[in-house]
């Protein structure tokens, strides 16, 4: 070590210390380094801190630095940056509070004993000051991340909760984070702080990469704030603070965007809230939130099951059932054929049981159900009973029912091709009543066909309902390409950009894997009509859109403005109906079914304009729209 140290111009250099071959001497030197670093004012301090940051990211479970006082050192450095602005502005010290808070978060994300050491080292007060915004949003991001890790553990949560302002600050940050990042960084390229740009891109990118990373970090700032709030939401005493209408109503719209899709974000917090009796009451009466949960439950969102859980708990609670039943039941009926979503098994059975309990509770006088809702539940229960009966039916009888349903379906296809959309929808309804419940592939086709008719009849809610039923019946769940596309268009008609975007992206993914020549992507090219819809919805669901409208980046809801910079071509942003007219990527009808009769397959030519209703160019082939 002496040889290495003599060649280094910096006495006590951390990198030289780490090269010491004697473990005992190295530990003693590292301990000394951590103790002395906060009191030193030498240039180049950011270098060992960035090295520690890399080590913490690569080896977060290594206890050596924890035992030697890294938490005390990092807390002291954050305090120094907060109290000594002259030091903070010198050399590259502006980076140090960020790295210090990040190091604390990395070492506490997996190990509870490390989190306990961090609390004992006094890291919470300086992190709270960063959370307040004493420096910038960049430091807020890593502070809320570290506090979220500390709040995760039972042994350290009380220390976090003892700082009463943390919950309020996190709620405010969750609601304002996107606007903060947009107005303080994204909006004005020439005003961006250089150290922010360096941290975002590691010095490897230009303005475009800075903007993309800013969107990702803004999403993380919001999602990590929600994660911290979620730790408080498990404790009933904090629910009154969390369950304020102005906050609850925003939660369904906090979804992480495409840049942070691994976070359950707002719906994850809603699930925690709805799991508790004290939380369900405020959710049930919050305007718009039940409709939003129903949309998420019907969507192809990765967190669909969380929304379903919320709806089930609200429906099963006698104190909230009557407040939500009219909106919740239609959504759950559409979802009753789901079997599995990821690791969540038998969701459909849970839905059916909950709906059955609704009927029984009405019989006991515990609640009142409208005739319309009662009829929907009873129809579902009859279909489930019908499925059981069919298990004992002779195969010959099932084949007769299948044949009858096929005949009626073909009549519906013929009516559709002749332009009688309403008549076709009625025929598909008749075919569904004849088709055995066990013929799931054929029922997928019929529901999807009828969804297409409802689209053309300008009935998007009915189209969403049928497309959702088709997607629930399909195996794998939520992967029936044409139903995804139809539902994407229906969501577009309702202005639900996020839901439309997710379905459109999944549609493209399914097309890339399909063996159907009408769906498969030719030469790996995304269909023009799908690309246009995705681009449109990406703009409408853009993470910064609300902030950009507020701060003048977007001049109106219908004007793209300069959201995506000067390269944006407004001519591309057509409505879904405009984008479908006159292109080779038309939404054809035609799909595999369970009849396995190739002679019955037939391709129809592209329809003339007389077959196009309200701008949606969709053609009915022999088997499916």
Describe this structure in words.
This protein is mainly α and 625 residues long. Helices cover 63% and strands 1% of the residues. The protein contains 33 helices and four strands. The chain has a two-stranded antiparallel sheet with strand order 1-2. Helix 8 (96-108) packs parallel to helix 11 (137-152) and helix 18 packs parallel to helix 21. The longest helix has 27 residues, at 207-233. The radius of gyration is 29 Å and the shape is elongated. The protein starts with a helix and ends in a 6-residue tail after the last strand.
Fold topology:
Blueprint: H1 2-7, H2 14-18, H3 23-36, H4 46-58, H5 64-67, H6 70-83, H7 85-89, H8 96-108, H9 112-120, H10 124-131, H11 137-152, H12 157-161, H13 165-186, H14 194-201, H15 207-233, H16 239-242, H17 245-248, H18 265-274, H19 277-285, H20 289-298, H21 304-316, H22 321-334, E1 340-341, E2 344-345, H23 347-363, H24 371-390, H25 395-417, H26 421-434, H27 440-456, H28 460-473, H29 481-493, H30 497-513, H31 528-540, H32 545-550, H33 576-580, E3 587-588, E4 618-619
Helix pairs in contact: 4-8, 6-8, 6-10, 8-11, 10-11, 11-15, 13-15, 15-18, 18-19, 18-21, 20-21, 20-22, 21-22, 21-23, 22-24, 23-24, 25-26, 26-27, 27-28, 27-29, 28-29, 29-30, 30-31
What is the number of helices?
A: 33
Total number of β-strand segments?
Answer: 4
Strand content: under 5%
Radius of gyration using CA atoms only: 29 Å
Work out the oligomeric state of the chains in this entry: single chain
Structural class: mainly alpha
- Mean pLDDT score, rounded? 85
Which regions contain 5 or more consecutive residues with pLDDT less than 50? 1-5, 555-588, 590-625
Q: What's the shape?
A: elongated
The span between the termini is: 75 Å
Sheet with most strands: 2 strands, antiparallel
Helix content: 55-70%
Arrangement of strands in the largest sheet: 1-2
């Amino acid at each position: 070590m002496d040889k290495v140290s003599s060649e280094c111009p910096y006495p006590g250099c951390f990198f030289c210390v780490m090269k010491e071959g004697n473990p005992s001497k190295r530990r003693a030197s590292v301990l000394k380094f951590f103790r002395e670093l906060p009191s030193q004012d030498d240039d180049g301090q950011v270098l060992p801190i960035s090295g520690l940051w890399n080590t913490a990211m690569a080896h977060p479970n290594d206890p050596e630095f924890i035992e030697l006082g890294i938490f005390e050192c990092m807390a002291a450095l954050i305090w120094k940056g907060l109290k000594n602005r002259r030091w903070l502005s010198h050399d590259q010290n502006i980076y140090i509070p960020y790295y210090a808070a990040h190091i604390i978060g990395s070492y506490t994300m997996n190990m509870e004993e490390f989190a306990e050491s961090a609390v004992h080292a006094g890291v919470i007060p300086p992190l709270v000051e960063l959370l307040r915004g004493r420096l910038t949003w960049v430091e807020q991001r890593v502070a809320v991340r570290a506090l979220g890790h500390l709040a995760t553990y039972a042994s350290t949560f009380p220390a976090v909760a003892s700082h009463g302002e943390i919950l309020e600050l996190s709620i405010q940050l969750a609601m304002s984070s996107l606007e903060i990042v947009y107005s303080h960084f994204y909006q004005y390229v020439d005003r961006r702080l250089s150290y922010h740009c360096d941290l975002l891109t590691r010095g490897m990118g230009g303005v475009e990469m800075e903007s993309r990373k800013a969107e990702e970090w803004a999403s993380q700032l919001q999602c990590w704030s929600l994660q911290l709030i979620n730790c408080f939401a498990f404790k009933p005493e904090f629910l009154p603070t969390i369950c304020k209408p102005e906050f609850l109503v925003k939660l369904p719209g906090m979804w992480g965007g495409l840049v942070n899709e691994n976070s359950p974000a707002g719906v994850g917090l809603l699930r925690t809230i709805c799991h508790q009796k004290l939380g369900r009451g405020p959710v049930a009466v919050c305007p718009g939130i039940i409709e939003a949960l129903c949309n998420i439950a019907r969507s192809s969102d990765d967190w669909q099951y969380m929304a379903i859980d919320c709806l089930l708990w609200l429906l099963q609670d006698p104190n909230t059932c009557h407040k939500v039943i009219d909106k919740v039941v239609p959504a759950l009926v559409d979802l009753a054929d789901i079997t599995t979503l990821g690791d969540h098994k038998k969701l459909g059975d849970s839905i059916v049981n909950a709906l059955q309990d609704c009927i029984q509770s009405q019989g006991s006088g515990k609640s009142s159900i409208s005739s319309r809702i009662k009829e929907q539940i009873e129809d579902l229960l009859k279909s489930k009973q019908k499925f059981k009966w069919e298990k004992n039916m002779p195969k010959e009888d099932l084949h007769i029912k299948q044949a009858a349903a096929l005949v009626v379906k073909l009549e519906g296809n013929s009516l559709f091709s002749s332009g009688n959309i309403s008549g076709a929808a009625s025929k598909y309804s008749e075919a569904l009543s004849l088709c055995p419940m066990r013929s799931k592939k054929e029922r997928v086709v019929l529901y999807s066909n009828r969804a297409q008719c409802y689209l053309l009849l300008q009935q998007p809610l009915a189209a969403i309902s049928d497309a959702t039923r088709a997607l629930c019946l399909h195996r794998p769940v939520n992967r029936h390409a044409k139903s995804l596309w139809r539902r994407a268009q229906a969501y577009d008609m309702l202005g639900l950009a996020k839901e439309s975007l997710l379905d459109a992206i999944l549609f493209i993914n399914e097309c890339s894997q399909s063996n159907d020549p009408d769906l498969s992507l030719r030469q790996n090219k995304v269909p023009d009509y799908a690309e246009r819809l995705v681009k449109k919805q990406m703009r409408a669901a853009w993470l910064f859109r609300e902030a950009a409208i507020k701060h003048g980046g977007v001049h109106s809801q219908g004007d793209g403005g300069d959201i995506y910079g000067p390269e944006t071509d407004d001519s591309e942003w057509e409505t879904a109906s405009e984008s479908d007219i006159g292109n080779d990527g038309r939404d054809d009808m035609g799909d595999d079914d369970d009849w396995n009769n190739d002679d019955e397959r037939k391709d129809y030519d592209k329809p003339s304009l007389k077959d196009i209703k309200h701008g949606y160019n969709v053609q009915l082939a022999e088997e499916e729209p």
